[in-house]
Design brief:
The chain has one helix and 24 strands. Helices cover 1% and strands 58% of the residues. It has one domain: Porin. A hairpin with a 2-residue loop joins strand 22 and strand 23.
Length: 409
């Protein structure tokens, strides 16, 4: 018996028979190898995001992004905001063809596109060894995320979703898995166009190459991943490219319901992949020789989740990042509105991040949480500012209380 689209639309059922399935699940009557020929589900991760800024320059940011703390400002006005934009929706289907091959298709979106507009998160198909479409970048670790209310995550975290073609497989020991992918190139070295008039973006011609190897057990996993990039640019009307490369080590250890997670990352020209400064033009900068230099970056974070009982649990997270601009020809050291301010010298940019929360699983599919966020941003500059030598440091901290709920169905 063949299933029709009409069957698919008319016989949506509330299914409780599949442990981890969404409640709204459609299952084909036909089967192959004792599995339904297709199974589709529509799910929602509803999230209320409420936050109260006690002090620090993050009042205009929905996430606790330490990299955006305004170290030059002094406005410590408290601020309270609330939204539902972090709500996610996911449509997922599993197909088994007559040949026995299994294929998964996923489309996921949220409302983080600005003012509640929809944004595509994932859209991919996956077979036995291939994944094609947009999903988590291989350089990161998609099975890693501290259980927090704040949505940005630690400043050194690598959680980029990009279009790619990925091949994955296991060795003879199936606990070991490897991945190789060609990722859509990300250009992130231009932000202040009026301040960097001699630096222009070029069309990219080379995909990013990412590789990873992972050792997985019942207690968790350890993962080592890498990225290699060639970024094309135009400086003083001359086209060239610089190379970016990086390594990331991550893992999770589970004991009963408690877990410890960590991620360490380092490299050059990889800031487009790091949460706190992605989009700020940090991948590369012109040096005193009028050449593009990939920005050195290093960072890491760790979290621990402890369950006091079946419903009450707590998380603590710490993280840091550091970016070094050595021998920079020019660099924006203050607000872009004052374009006369430039730095010729060195600048160190560092972040420190900490979170502590309590979460309560009110229902099987609902969690409520209360969280304290604290972060520090440091800028340490030395060089020539408007032809005057300076040795200056700027630092500012921010504190936020995040609270809300997450409901899954």
């Amino acid at each position: 018996m063949k299933s029709s689209p009409l069957f698919f639309l008319l016989f949506l059922t509330i299914s409780l028979s599949y442990g981890q399935d969404r409640y709204l699940t459609v299952v084909s009557k036909d089967s192959i190898n004792n599995k339904p020929k297709y199974k589709s589900s529509l799910g929602v991760n509803m999230k209320l995001n409420a936050y109260y800024d006690l002090f620090g320059g993050l009042q205009d940011n929905e996430t606790f992004n330490v990299g955006l703390i305004n170290v030059f400002g002094s406005d410590d006005t408290d601020s309270f905001k609330i939204d539902m934009y972090q709500t996610q929706m996911k449509f997922e289907s599993d197909f088994i063809f007559d040949s026995g091959r299994e294929v998964k298709a996923v489309v996921e979106w949220d409302f983080w596109g600005g003012n509640g507009h929809m944004r595509l998160r994932k859209a991919y198909i996956e077979s036995d060894h291939w994944q094609i479409g947009q999903n988590w970048n291989t350089f990161g670790d998609e099975n890693l995320w501290p259980n927090i209310m704040e949505w940005e995550g630690p400043p050194s975290g690598v959680w980029v979703r990009s279009p790619h073609v990925k091949y994955f497989n296991t060795f003879s020991n199936t606990n070991w898995k490897y991945e190789i992918s060609l990722e859509a190139p990300i250009t992130d070295y231009i932000r202040f166009e009026e301040f960097e008039p001699l630096l222009n973006e070029e069309y990219q011609s080379t995909p990013d190459l990412a590789m990873a190897i992972e050792n997985k057990h019942e207690w968790g996993h350890i993962r080592l991943s890498s990225i290699l990039r060639s970024v094309r640019y135009s400086l003083d009307s001359n086209s060239d490219n610089f190379y970016g490369y990086g390594l990331a080590l991550s893992g999770i250890y589970k004991h009963e319901r408690n877990n410890f997670q960590f991620q360490l990352v380092g490299g050059k020209g990889i800031t487009a992949y790091m949460t706190s400064v992605a989009g700020l033009g940090y991948d590369g900068y012109p040096n005193s020789k009028d050449e593009m230099e990939p920005t050195p970056a290093i960072g890491g974070w760790a979290s621990y989740e402890y369950f006091f009982n079946k419903k009450l649990h707590s998380n603590v997270v710490f993280g840091f990042t550091s970016y070094d601009f050595k021998d920079a020809e020019r660099y924006l050291y203050d607000d872009v509105s004052d374009i006369s301010i430039a730095l010729q010298g060195d600048l160190d940019h560092s972040h420190y991040y900490g979170i502590f929360n309590f979460m309560y699983d009110a229902y099987e599919t609902m969690t409520v949480g209360l969280e304290l966020n604290y972060g520090v941003k440091d800028l340490d500059a030395n060089g020539y500012l408007n032809d005057i030598f300076i040795n200056d440091s700027k630092s500012r901290d921010a504190m936020r209380i995040s609270f809300g709920f997450m409901f899954y169905f």
